[in-house]
Amino acid sequence: MLPAPCCTASGVNPVAEGSRCGFVALIGAPNVGKSTLLNRLIGAKISIVSPKVQTTRRRVLGILVEGEAQMIFVDTPGIFAPHKRLDRAMVKAAWRGAEDADLVILLVDPTRKRLDEDSRAIVASLKREGRRAILAINKVDAVKPPKLLGLADTLYAEGIFDEVFMISAETGDGVADLIKGIVRRLPEGPWHYPADQISDMPMREIAAEITREQLFRQLHAELPYALTVEQESWEDFDDGSLRVGQQIFVARESQRSIVLGEKGQRIKAVRQAAQREISELTGRKVHLFLHVKFRENWQDDPERYRAMGLDFED
Ligand code: GDP
Prior knowledge:
Blueprint: E1 20-27, H1 34-42, E2 61-66, E3 69-75, H2 85-100, E4 103-108, H3 117-128, E5 133-137, H4 145-156, E6 161-166, H5 175-185, H6 203-219, E7 227-236, E8 242-250, H7 253-260, H8 265-282, E9 286-294, H9 302-307
Parallel strand pairs: 1-3, 1-4, 4-5, 5-6, 8-9
Antiparallel strand pairs: 2-3, 7-8
Helix pairs in contact: 6-8
The protein binds guanosine-5'-diphosphate (GDP).
Guanosine-5'-diphosphate binds near residues 34, 78, 139, 142 and 170.
């Protein structure tokens, strides 16, 4: 379910002449550049960019206003062949985003030798469900034109794409055209959100995402796959400063020492970097406290799933 649309202060959404509004699902295999594109579109840091697979576990909304149109982007955690329970929950959340959306954009990566299995599975699934989509071929800065055209032709022949765009989320090439294409296809109607709302992800969740991103950056290959950051406390002080407490859960006791690092050096570096970023984001002095906890089988604990906004399935 998408969150209930909110209203302006007067309780009424603006209904300008010719106003358009809709939910746009950005779907694609891991690493095709969904987060990079979303960040470019929204211009604010609301999703994680990382060379690692499966870093976006949560569906994030970003809102872009262009003239009379309001686009509400639904980022998805990546749709791929689900193996573990957690993966299955993520896939389900991803598809749920796409089902609710007015418009689906499939992002593909042409830098790989051939179209990856995940993207092919998504195309097959869109076809099966009779959904139409916009195709955005990303990373055009890194590929020669003939390869791009070949891929565009092959995918267009699937008969499910209304339009094909060639873009680079990194350089911004073609992104303005993509936005125009989205606006053209948005349903007419009043805006769902006030004009100044960028992300409906609460600041606390963004703060937890920031710490998670730092962990991804600083742990590299050593990163325990099953790791999650949860907000523990959030206290405002009279002097304007903020005390933020977060818990990092690992699935095995041995992983705790990896996260802590020798003499706690690693967690210290993570804490300092995350604290700086949260401080920049909130414009306040921040005291960040991190606790690394071992929680056996958290991947099978329904409560943790709910905390991440995911469904738990047997
Ligand atoms: P996601 O998993 O689909 O959200 O992908 P990310 O946004 O995390 O991007 C995966 C990787 O692709 C990162 O290393 C990005 O820097 C890189 N990337 C994203 N967009 C582009 C692009 O337009 N050109 C190039 N060359 N790299 C890109």
